[in-house]
Write a structure and sequence with these properties.
- The chain has helices spanning about 30-45, 65-85, 105-110, 120-135, 245-250, 290, 455-460, 485-490; strands spanning about 90-95, 140-150, 155-165, 170-180, 185-195, 205-210, 215-225, 235-245, 250-265, 270-280, 295-310, 320-330, 340-355, 360-370, 415-420, 435, 440-450, 465-475, 495-505, 510-515, 525.
- The protein is an alpha+beta fold.
- A hairpin with a 7-residue loop joins strand 5 and strand 6.
- The longest helix has 21 residues, at about 65-85.
Length: about 525
C-alpha cells in the first residue's frame, strides 16, 4: 500500500539533473563528509601563516571570537618576551602614504631613526620619536604609524607604515594684544602664515605689530626644517622696526635688517643679524651723551645662545633648574660705521619644592656686560641700544634670558642718568632726565609661591607668592672701569620686596602686588 503522507517530487520535463551535483557510483553521504573534512584540513594548512615578528605558526581563526583570542595570545606572548629581554628585530621596509605635496626626502630625513633599530623596544621608542618629529614640522594635521610583520620568508623583521594627513588649510592667521617684555606699553599684533608652499615643509609668515607708544614692527620670514641635507633648520627674517624711547631716553630707533638662523638644536642656537640702524631725536631735548650717538650705524653681529631648561613650568616652576647664556660679537664688517662690541649675558634659575600646597622656593641670578672693541675702545662709549636697562612691570620669574626685569621700578629707571637739554637757557621739564643704561648689570631674585587652601582657588591656579628682588647697573666705558668699585656697586644696589596674588587665565596672567621699594638714587655724571 502506498503511504498517503508521501508526495511525489514533481519535475518539469525540461529539468535535467546537474552532473556536477550527481554523486558518483558507490559513494554515500558519510564518505562525502569525510572527504570534505580532508579538503578543509588541507586548506587550513595552506592558510596558516607566520605570526607577527617571528612568533610560532598558529591556525587561522575561523570566528571573530577565535581571532580575538588569537590576537590576545599573540600580544601576551610578545609582552612576555619584551619583559624578559630585548626582542631582536629589524625594519625591513618603511612605507609612507598621504604626502601628496610634501617631498619624500623631507619625510625621509625625519624617519632615519627607524632604520637603525635592532629590537622591538627600540622600534617602539623610535616610532614615538618619529611621530613627534613629523608633527613638529607643523604641516600635517595627523600622523599615524602602524607596525606590522615583515615578509614570511624573513622572520624577525617588521614593516612600518606611516600615514600622514597634510594640512587642509595651509593659510592661517591670528591677531591679539600683548605686553612686550620691556613693559613699556601694550601692542596689537597680527600675523599670516602659509605652510608647505613648495612642498619642503617650508613655512612663510608675515607679521605686523603696533604699540600705543607709536612703536611698530613689520617683518616677513621663512622656515626650512631641512635644506640641502643640513641637519638643522634654516630661518630667515627681514624686518623693519621702529621703537620710541623719547619718554625715557630722548631718542627714536629705526632698524631695517635681516636675521639668519644658522644653527639650531636642543640646547644651542647660532644666528647672524645685519641691520641698518638710525637714532633720531625729534624733540631736540636729548642730553649730551644721547646726542653723541644720534645718526646712522651698521649692525653686523653673530649671536650664540646656550639654553638648558629642566623646570616643570616656565610660568610657575615648582622644581627643576634652568640656565641661559648668550654671547654676541658685533663689528663683522669692514665699514667704519659698523658697531664693534662684545656682549655677554647669563641667567640661572633654581626651584625647590617644599612639599605642601604646591609650595616652592625659586632663586635666580642674572648678569651681563657689554664692551666695545677695537682701537681706542676703552675711551669710547658703548652703543646705547646695546646697553642694559633695568626696571618695568614685568615678572622676573617669567623672564628668562638676562638682566632686564626688576619688579616695582620705572621702566629703565635704574642706573646712570643725565639731565635733558635746556632750551633758551631753561629746561622745559626741570625733572626731565635721560636714562642712559649701563655696561654692567646684575639682578637677583627670591620667590616663595604656594596655593591657597580653598579648593576652588587651587583648581583655577590662583596662588599667592612673596618675593624679593635686587639689581644694579654701572658704567664701564669711557675709562670709567678705572673708577669701578665692587663695594660701591653693592652699596648702591636697589631692591624691592612684596607679596602678590596671581590669577592666571587662558588669555593673560594677572598679578596684583603690594610692594616696598628701597630709595632710588639717580646718579648723574
Amino acid at each position: 500500500m502506498s503511504n498517503p503522507d508521501l508526495k511525489p517530487e514533481l519535475t518539469t520535463p525540461d529539468s535535467k539533473p546537474d552532473p556536477e551535483h550527481q554523486k558518483p557510483f558507490g559513494t554515500n553521504d558519510a564518505d562525502e563528509e569525510e572527504d570534505g573534512d580532508d579538503e578543509n584540513d588541507v586548506e587550513d594548512e595552506e592558510e596558516e601563516d607566520v605570526d607577527v615578528f617571528g612568533e610560532p605558526d598558529r591556525p587561522k581563526p575561523r570566528t571573530r571570537e577565535d581571532k580575538f583570542r588569537s590576537d590576545k595570545l599573540k600580544m601576551e606572548s610578545l609582552l612576555r618576551r619584551m619583559q624578559s629581554g630585548p626582542v631582536s628585530l629589524r625594519v625591513h621596509d618603511v612605507i609612507v602614504k598621504g604626502n601628496t605635496k610634501t617631498k619624500d626626502h623631507v619625510i625621509a630625513a625625519e624617519i632615519e631613526e627607524l632604520k637603525r633599530v635592532g629590537s622591538m623596544q627600540e622600534l617602539l621608542k623610535a616610532s614615538q620619536l618619529v611621530n613627534l618629529r613629523l608633527r613638529a614640522l607643523d604641516v600635517f594635521d595627523a600622523v599615524k604609524i602602524t607596525l606590522d610583520s615583515g615578509p614570511p620568508e624573513l622572520p624577525g623583521t617588521a614593516n612600518v607604515t606611516i600615514e600622514v594627513v597634510e594640512t587642509a588649510n595651509p593659510l592661517s592667521g591670528q591677531i591679539g594684544a600683548y605686553t612686550k617684555a620691556e613693559a613699556r606699553s601694550s601692542t596689537v599684533e597680527g600675523s599670516l602664515k602659509y605652510k608647505n608652499l613648495f612642498g619642503y615643509a617650508d613655512i612663510w609668515d608675515g607679521s605686523l605689530a603696533y604699540g600705543c607708544d607709536h612703536s611698530a614692527e613689520l617683518s616677513a620670514g621663512m622656515y626650512l626644517p631641512r635644506f640641502k641635507g643640513l641637519a638643522t633648520p634654516v630661518t630667515a627674517r627681514a624686518y623693519l622696526l621702529s621703537q620710541d624711547w623719547l619718554k625715557f631716553s630722548s631718542y627714536k630707533e629705526r632698524s631695517l635688517g635681516l636675521s639668519l638662523g644658522l644653527f639650531s638644536s636642543t640646547y644651542h642656537d647660532v644666528s647672524y643679524n645685519l641691520a641698518w640702524r638710525t637714532l633720531t631725536d625729534p624733540s631736540q631735548m636729548s642730553s649730551r651723551p644721547v646726542r653723541r650717538q644720534l645718526g646712522h650705524n651698521l649692525l653686523s653681529s653673530l649671536k650664540y645662545t646656550f639654553k638648558f631648561d629642566q623646570r616643570n613650568s616656565s610660568m610657575r616652576p615648582t622644581r627643576g633648574y634652568a640656565f641661559v647664556s648668550t654671547s654676541q660679537i658685533g663689528g663683522l664688517a669692514p665699514d667704519t660705521r659698523c658697531l664693534r662690541f662684545l656682549r655677554q649675558e647669563f641667567d640661572l634659575r633654581y626651584a625647590v619644592p617644599l612639599g605642601f600646597y604646591r609650595a616652592a622656593l625659586n632663586f635666580g641670578i642674572s648678569g651681563g656686560v657689554v664692551f666695545p672693541w677695537g682701537n681706542g675702545s676703552l675711551s669710547r662709549p658703548s652703543s646705547l641700544p646695546e646697553r642694559f636697562f633695568l626696571g618695568g612691570n614685568v615678572s622676573p620669574l617669567c623672564a628668562l634670558g638676562g638682566p632686564t626685569a626688576l619688579w616695582g621700578f620705572k621702566t629703565r629707571g635704574l642706573g646712570p642718568t643725565e639731565p635733558k637739554r635746556q632750551v633758551h637757557g631753561e629746561n622745559s621739564d626741570p625733572s626731565g632726565v635721560d636714562f642712559l643704561g649701563g655696561d654692567l648689570a646684575v639682578t637677583a631674585l627670591a620667590d616663595l609661591s604656594f596655593d591657597l587652601p580653598l579648593r576652588w582657588f587651587r583648581e583655577k591656579g590662583i596662588h599667592v607668592h612673596a618675593f624679593a628682588c635686587a639689581g644694579n647697573v654701572a658704567k664701564l666705558t669711557e675709562n670709567e672701569y678705572q673708577n669701578f668699585s665692587v663695594q660701591k656697586f653693592v652699596e648702591s644696589i636697589r631692591s624691592s620686596v612684596g607679596v602678590g596674588l596671581v590669577i592666571p587665565t587662558s588669555l593673560f596672567r594677572m598679578e596684583v602686588c603690594s610692594l616696598s621699594l628701597s630709595p632710588i638714587i639717580f646718579q648723574s655724571k
